[in-house]
Amino acid sequence: MKSRNGMELAQLIILVDLFRDELYEELLKRHGKHALELLRTAQNETY
Fold first, then answer.
1. Separation CA 8–CA 30 (nearest Å)
2. Distance CA 12, CA 16 (A)
3. CA–CA distance from 21 to each of 12, 26, 28, 34 (Å)?
4. pLDDT band per the 50, 70, 90 thresholds, residue 1
5. Whole-angstrom Cα distance, residue 40 to residue 28?
6. According to the lineage, what is the superkingdom (predicted)?
7. CA distances from 43 to 15, 29, 47 (A)
8. What are the residue boundaries of the structural domains of the chain, listed by start?
9. Distance CA 5, CA 42 (A)
10. Cα–Cα distance between 10 and 13 in angstroms, integer?
11. What is the pLDDT of residues 5-35, one digit of tens each?
12. How far apart are CA 28 and CA 35, in angstroms?
């Protein structure tokens, strides 16, 4: 990643966080009460 100043990094973090929220809402729509379990399973398999 090229060098970025603090404000650029903060803005990127906000954009990524908003995108994460959108993705989580979509996961909830598609999988309802199983969304969190699915997310945790995927997280555990990734790390």
1. 33
2. 6
3. 14, 9, 10, 17
4. low
5. 13
6. Bacteria
7. 21, 19, 6
8. 7-46
9. 32
10. 5
11. 999 999 999 999 999 999 999 999 999 999 9
12. 5
